[in-house]
Design a protein that fits this description.
Length: 80
């Protein structure tokens, strides 16, 4: 997934901040859920297996974190 597509996905979460939307991102290492919290005013990226949640304040920071997660997966698949 490109960084542009990731940012579009995040912008959609912001547009529908009154709704509860969760995206699931799977890679070879873990499964993550992504959501936006209107109350906390941040994006939440949760590792489903461990329950660990990271909070990101804006689209730019969140998109870079997601891009790294996705690209690690693609790189590992290519190297195998």
């Amino acid at each position: 997934m490109t960084i542009i597509k990731i940012k579009e996905m995040l912008e959609t979460l912001l547009q529908y901040e009154d709704s509860e939307i969760t995206h699931t991102i799977c890679n070879t290492n873990a499964t993550f859920s992504l959501s936006y919290s209107k109350d906390l005013k941040n994006f939440q990226l949760k590792n489903v297996e461990t329950g660990y949640i990271e909070h990101f304040p804006d689209v730019e920071t969140t998109s870079l974190a997601l891009y790294k997660i996705i690209n690690i997966t693609e790189k590992e698949v290519t190297e195998q």
